[in-house]
Amino acid sequence: MAAVVVVPLALLGACIGSFLNVVAWRLPRHESVVHPGSHCPSCGHSVRWHDNLPVLGWLWLAGRCRDCGWTIPTRYPLVEALSSGLWVSAAWARGLPVDQSRLGAEAAAGLSLVAGVVLVSLLLVLLLIDCDHLWLPEPLCRAGVLLGLIVMLSAPSQLLPHLLAAAAALLGMEALSALGEKILGQPALGLGDAKLAAMGGAWLGPAGIAAAMALAVCSGAIIGLMGRLSGRLGPRQPFPFGPFIALGIWLVWLTGPIWWWQNWIRLIGVA
Questions:
Q1: Which of 240, 130, 151 is nearest to 201 (CA)?
Q2: What are the C-alpha distances in Å from 96 to residues 45, 108, 255?
Q3: Which run of H or of E encompasses 130?
Q4: Which one of 166, 193, 197, 224 is most buried, by most CB atoms within 10 A?
Q5: Do the beta carbons of residue 166 and residue 174 sit within 8 Å?
Q6: Is 210 exposed, middle or buried, given 0-12, 13-18 or 19+ CB atoms closer than 10 A?
Q7: What is the rounded distance in angstroms from the CA atom of residue 78 to the CA atom of residue 74?
Q8: Using one digit for the tens of pLDDT, what is the confidence trace for 107-154?
Q9: Between vectors from CA 124 to CA 16 and to CA 9, what angle results, nearest 5°?
Q10: How many whole angstroms separate alpha carbon 134 and alpha carbon 142?
Q11: Residue 250: CB partners within 8 Å, gap ≥ 6?
């Protein structure tokens, strides 16, 4: 892809990543995400515009507040860099079932790119909040479902399947949560996970959300097992499942569900 597209995507993605850091910090604390402007959590001083440049500002300050010397977590530039890379990856995504013969190749590619960066930005901020608080904000998940269905208006024949996929994912995850609680005596899944799965269904459709949840379960099981074996996770200690759902959704959005199912069949030797 031409640098004329990649470079603006990378820069804008980093800027959005900076904003997502703010959202992930303030939203769980019930603070406005727009007012006041960026400021040091330690001393309260406003961050100067040139110190607020994504990644570069942190490097320029050597990771410390200019006013009080508070150590700025490395998470901030890492999230900005990650957001930048994810925005660039959206340019290659194949998740949106757009009819190119109806819209034209360029319009379809543009719509797919816009949809992709919206989706990945939502997933990233949900991931950050879940990692910090074991909580997936319902308003963000609901907005994600609505946006996914609005995007599917570009492919009207897919709207009903995607709506049904969202409903099935929600009900299925809630049923699993109730079953897990009955068996284990404690919640196995948060209801926020069900709402994030519903969001995935709205964006990916039936085959897509099935593939995404399979990826989420496999990756979550591997990380959970590693945590148990290493002693980082105690028996029945909860850990966030939302990041694994988000990962599954984005991986399926990038390649489409068929690629994952074909390779899964090849892996287990069915064909």
A1: 151
A2: 43, 9, 10
A3: helix 105-133
A4: 197
A5: no
A6: buried
A7: 6
A8: 778 888 999 999 999 999 999 999 999 999 999 999 999 999 999 988
A9: 40
A10: 18
A11: 86, 119, 120, 123
Q: What would the two tokens of residue 93 be? A: 């995504």
DSSP classification of residue 72 = P
Tokens of 252: 């399926």
pLDDT band, very low/low/confident/very high, at 101 (cuts 50, 70, 90): low
| Tokens at 29, concatenated | 């604390």
Question: How do the residues of the chain divide into helix, strand and coil, expressed in percent and rounded to 5?
Answer: 75, 0, 25
Residue with tokens 């379809």, as numbered in its chain: 108
Tokens 């029945």: give the residue: 236
Sign of the CA dihedral running 55, 59, 62, 68 = negative
